[in-house]
Amino acid sequence: MQKTEGEESKAENEEVKQVTLMTSDGVKMKVEISIVYEMEIVRSFIEVNDADHSVPFPLPNVSSHTLDLIIELVKNEYDDEFMKTFSHDELKEVLVAANYLNMKTLLDFIATAIANLLEKKSVEFIRNFFNIVNDFTPEEEAEIRKTNEWVFQDLDED
Amino acid sequence: MNVLPSCCYLQNLPEELIENILFRVPIKYLLQLKLVCKSLNSLISHPKFAKHHLRSSATLRLVSSVHGQNNLQIFSINSLFQNLSGPLRSCTITGHNLILGSCNGILCLCDIVQCHITLFNPSTTLSSPAFPTDLSPGEVYRTFHGFGYDHVNEKYKVLLVRRILTETVTKVYTFGEKRSIRVVENSQLYPLPSGRLGKCVSGTLNWMTPKLGPNDSVNEWVILSFNLVTETFGEMMLPDGNSNNICKPMINLVHNCLCVCFFDRKKACWCVWVMKEYGVEDSWTNLMMISGFVIDGLPCIRNELCSCIGCPALDPLYVSEDGMALFKTTSCRLLLYNPNDGTLNCVRVRGDIWSYHESLVSPSS
User: Fold this and answer.
1) Alpha-carbon distance B242 to B213, whole Å?
2) A14 in a domain, yes or no?
């Protein structure tokens, strides 16, 4: 009897501690409430509406793949090594999602990671990363190089 | 169901997110990114971006200028702590200059011979047009002065206080498209020669200043402040009450707050305090107390001998999160303090040393 009670209360707790989120590709995902609470957009909704956690909360701008990555990142306490396995697109997806979900710590973490990735990379690499096409004429490019001359002489490694 | 491939949102990241990333990129690489495309170039070149960048993530650097040389040496604070004392780079300036102040990543230079003042951003190497003054050659060494930003009128201003025989003249030089010079009311107090460089915080300039008693002896130390918005002088109390114990006080900025460092005779240690909220005397917070330190190459500093002639005052330049501190001494040396073992290591850096934030702020704005 005692055992059953214990299992029941454990099951209840798990029920309370999870929130169902519905991703852009229609996947319903049960997410621990501690993780959901980092998502200000969901948290404020839950707190204001005292909502039924079993009704999926729609996230029309976040794919299930991105949400998976976010959950793993939060679970791993923002592990750099794990994040280094992300493709460029994944990094950008997580950035956009962190902004949409209003996850301050994650946004900070991912924006810093991208900044570190871009540092010391060639201009061409940056263009590829942001999907940007060079729209300068050679003359305009020379002008920019001239006005910021010291930047293009590789002196400091700091 | 309407399912977009996830990468479709990313063809163009929203500008606010691109900005959020760029704020975290050091200036040097940021300036390289101007070559990426026109829109990134105009984003990085925009004065608003420069302001946001300065507020969110500017790197603190040191700059030194040696009398008689027309270049500035730039130092990385991290490298100094790793015993790499060489400069990161140097930048050439015209003329022989004295640094009058540092604010928002901009240095104010006074040409000793031509007697004009110029604003110079060492991160972008851009300068403002020169602003002539009525100083005579070399006179700037005898003035008390300060350089700072009036955030209400969005103008850079230089205060020059001259003493000609018994007469004192106080003038404010305002930079900008329409620059102006205004004579303002004199201060009743006058800093000592070693403390004549004002430090700018929250639209004010600040000097450590003695109040003299009978026989011109120092009765009390106060902070003389000049409000750059109203262009008037004021006074503030030092922390920790009894200023009789205060010896060799210096004033500077740490974490963008006013910071004072002095030797406390009674406690027999150096005390570093920051004023967390400018102008609020209750917000003075003790940052560190340094006593019984081990000296490398500076046998003259012993606590009990703090008032000896050879012992320099400690001018606080930087304090890290974990209590590593960097002081400038009056004798052109830098002292690195390590709280873990209480050691003070000496680094020789020639010339007059200032700290500044790497910023994109235009000196002509």
Assistant:
1) 16
2) yes
Q: Tens digits of per-residue pLDDT, B3-50?
A: 333 333 345 788 889 989 998 888 888 888 999 998 889 899 899 999
Nearest to B255 by CA among B233, B239, B278, B232: B278
Residue A20 amino acid letter: T
Q: Looking at the partner chain, which of A66, A96, A126 has a beta carbon nearest the beta carbon of B36?
A: A126
Min CA distance, B36 vs chain A (Å)? 6
- CB contacts < 8 Å between A and B, how many? 108
Determine the residue type at B47. Answer: P
Check CB contact under 8 Å for A93 and B29: no
Q: Does B300 touch chain A (CB under 8 A)?
A: no
Alpha helix (H) residue ranges in B135-240: none
Within a domain: residue B48? no
Query: For A99, left (φ over 0), alpha (ψ -120 to 50), or beta?
Result: alpha
pLDDT, one tens digit per residue, over B54-71 is 988 788 999 998 877 788
In angstroms, the CA B336 to CA B329 distance is: 11
Query: Looking at residue A94, which CATH number applies to its domain?
Result: 3.30.710.10
How many structural domains compose chain A? 1
Global ipTM: 0.83
Q: Note whether A112 contacts B: Cβ–Cβ < 8 A.
A: yes
Phi, psi of B287 (to 5 degrees): -95, -40
Global pTM reads 0.82
